[in-house]
Design goal:
By secondary structure, the protein is α/β, with parallel strands linked by helices. It contains eight helices and eleven strands. The C terminus is likely disordered.
């Protein structure tokens, strides 16, 4: 937990000096991978997941990074790839990890996700459980994914949300081959054992990145933060325990971090100290 290891001075629109120094260092790496969570990181959390959109400043910074040499952008999300594409509108060059690492897009021809018979059966059973829970708990919703099903409780009253989550957990835990993960007002289930850390490592190897910048806001992002190496940089958005070296208060504050990273990366390359040395 690094509660006191830095934040932005949002009221002044300035970055913590230590965070800026860390951004300066990583901006000069030969091959940079910028891997980002979407909800709560690039986009504010909203009641209806389909209404989420990246903040304009954050989206512009991602586009600027994408255009820089030897710089790869990626989104690593708990959303299914179809949902992620809908809300994020990613450039074709942006790499995508969906469903907490179960779905991967690294370009045209990326293999589609397939399930074996046992996994398909577990998914049907899990879906039936969540459907029953949603029907009995007003304000909760079901989200279907290629390898899992999610119980959303953000739009339910707190007592209802707690009851729904416990009811779902009780029955889902009895299904063989099912993996449960808690998030912010969500209970995730998957028939595949995957996480954002595994997704990050896949992208690191695919891009041959010499350093990785990662940011996320939820407990599931901690798997990616744990996968970071000494040359990498992790940022936590919002409250809660985290292994990230730095923290900012909100997606608005994080947009400023991204803008700074893009500016420093561009300057580093113009001065011949960054990726153009590779």
């Amino acid at each position: 937990m690094n509660e006191n290891r830095a934040a932005t001075s949002e009221n002044r629109g300035e970055l913590d000096p230590a965070l800026r120094r860390a951004l300066e260092k990583i901006s000069s790496t030969p091959r940079l991978l910028v891997a980002l969570d979407f909800d709560g990181t690039l986009a504010p959390i909203v009641a209806r997941a389909e209404d989420a959109r990246a903040l304009p400043a954050a989206a512009a910074a991602v586009r600027e990074l994408l255009e820089l040499p030897e710089t790869t952008t990626a989104f690593i999300s708990g959303r299914a790839l179809e949902s992620l594409r809908l809300v994020a509108s990613p450039d074709d060059r942006t790499l995508l990890i969906g469903s907490h690492g179960a779905e991967v897009f690294t370009g045209p021809g990326s293999p589609a996700l397939t399930l074996d018979q046992a996994q398909a059966l577990a998914l049907r059973q899990a879906t039936a459980v969540v459907e029953k829970v949603v029907a009995a708990h007003p304000g909760t919703r079901l989200e279907a994914k290629p390898a899992g099903v999610v119980l959303h409780t953000r739009t339910a009253e707190d007592p209802v949300a707690e009851a729904a989550t416990e009811a779902a957990r009780r029955e889902l835990s009895e299904i063989e081959g099912l993996h449960l993960t808690d998030g912010k007002r969500v209970l995730e289930t998957s028939v595949l054992s995957s996480d954002k850390g595994q997704g990050l490592e896949l992208l690191r190897a695919f891009t041959e990145a010499t350093a990785v910048f990662f940011a996320g806001d939820d407990v599931t992002d901690e798997d990616a933060i744990k996968a970071l190496q000494p040359q990498d940089l992790g940022v936590k958005i919002g409250s809660g325990e985290s292994g990230a070296a730095f923290r900012v208060d909100s997606p608005d504050a994080f947009a400023r971090v991204l803008e700074t990273l893009a500016e420093l990366r561009r300057t580093s390359q113009q001065h011949g100290t960054g990726s153009r040395l590779s």
